[in-house]
Amino acid sequence: MSFSNNLKWLRRNAGLTQEALSEKLGVRRPMISAYEDGRSKPKMEAVATIAKTFEVSIDDLVQRDLAKEGRSGFGRFPVEVLTVAVDVHGEEQITLVPQKAAAGYLNGYADAEYFEKLPQFKLPQLPTGKTYRAFELSGDSMLPLGPGTVIIGAYLDQLLEIKNGMTYILVTKSEGVVYKRAFNYLKEKGKLYLVSDNEFYKPFEVPASEVLEVWEAKAYISTSFPDSKHSNVELTLKDLADMIQEVKNEIRKCQ
């Protein structure tokens, strides 16, 4: 009965009627009803199509109670052993990924030889016990932090650790390396909602399956200082509440 219950839960969670889902899948509406009631079992080809439509694995769709357990696909990242640089004393260094190397990072993030070619440095004031990486910004979507600013992030090995409204560097299959404010809708939709601080850039969603790495922003290095209009860069609680409400409104529009 896992498939029947999961199909009904996924459909409702996506805001779809049985008629709307039948149109997406190219089947008759009574067939959707029969699947959800357990009166008919779909062929493997149909199961695969449904899994792809809702961006879940086939195993999750037929075996896991998604309403209670969530999707297994957003627990850990594909690479569980993180490649790091160390100095002659065996202490971890911070690897810098410059703008020009960002595209190559997608192919080499797990490659030790690739990392040997990147700059490394150390900042003694960062808390110990974490792995850090630095990424150079290439655009102005996160003003007042402009192009050339270096963001230093601490590695997260669990997507579920992402906190709403905080900033992260995300390495993704479709968008590349991005620095955004994240909102966590993994349990509800299996996705992250990414927002720029620069209002001229539209928010966008990224499925959990697209995320390769996440680095929680801890510090930044810049050769320029924010101008007066950006002097108050810390979000107030009201600012954050307003931003979260805007995110919820945008998500409702997409459903």
Number of helices: 10
- Kindly provide the radius of gyration, computed on alpha-carbon positions and rounded to a whole number of angstroms: 21 Å
Distance between the termini: 26 Å
List the helices and strands in order. Answer: HHHHHHEEHHEEEEEHEEEH
- Beta strand %: 15-25%
Largest sheet at a glance?
10 strands, mixed
Structural domains: how many: 2
Q: What do we call the CATH topology of the largest domain?
A: Umud Fragment, subunit A
Just give the CATH class of the largest domain.
Answer: Mainly Beta
CATH superfamily of the largest domain: Umud Fragment, subunit A
CATH architecture term of the largest domain: Ribbon
What's the assembly state of these chains?
single chain
**What structural class is derived from the secondary structure elements?**
alpha+beta
Shape: elongated
Number of beta strands? 10
Summarize the structure.
By secondary structure, the protein is of the alpha+beta class.
